[in-house]
Amino acid sequence: MLKSKKHVFWEALFVTVIVFITGLLIGISFEKHQSDIIENYYAQSEVSLVDIMVLQKLSDIEGYDCDVLINANMEFADKIYFEALLLQEYESASRIVDDLVLSHKKYDLLRTFVWANALKIFEKCSEDFTPVIYLYEQNTEDLAKKATQKVWSRILEDLKYKKGNEIILLPIAADNNLSSVNAFVNQFEIKSLPCVVVGKDVILYELTSEEAIESYLN
Questions:
Q1: Cα separations (Å) of 100 from 7, 78, 151?
Q2: What is the CA angle 72-77-80, rounded to 5?
Q3: The predicted structure's pLDDT at residue 195
Q4: In this structure, what CATH number is given to the domain that contains residue 19?
Q5: Contact 130, 217 (CB under 8 A)
Q6: Segment (H or E) for 156
Q7: Domain span at residue 96?
């Protein structure tokens, strides 16, 4: 009888271990698949980055058509914006693989590059569009701040869908110790996160309605 109970115990333990290991491997495989998808998007964005580097050179040419500069910059900015929304969905489900965090930093660098280029074009063609930069903390554990950032994201997403090509919307995590991002934070004398930089002069720290933000657009 005792042997029978021990036999049942070891069988149950064996099945439990097998189920646990199988679940762990499936989870790792799923996370790796997500990471591969994000890396594929980033590889595509690197090609676009070369395009926008050429665009930056074109923006230095006197008399170059503003519509061409804005549309090219807008196309790239929108592409990485909507890819970043997908990245956020994967990040929210990620528990094991750290590649998604690295991919997030890569996208932040891409968006910062677009920000720099957008400011240059903004000086030449300011009446045609407005850069709207959302700086936030990716690594915060403050629940109140997380809630505030979710509201900001929703407001700005609605604004983007409403205004379309009238704005370039770039969400950038400003707490990942990226030198280029830190340089912009210092240049604009950002006092706290999250905040929204509209154009070159307006910085919003308090939650603001979509309509109020519109009043700062060109």
A1: 44, 20, 23
A2: 130
A3: 96
A4: 3.40.30.10
A5: yes
A6: helix 143-163
A7: 2-214
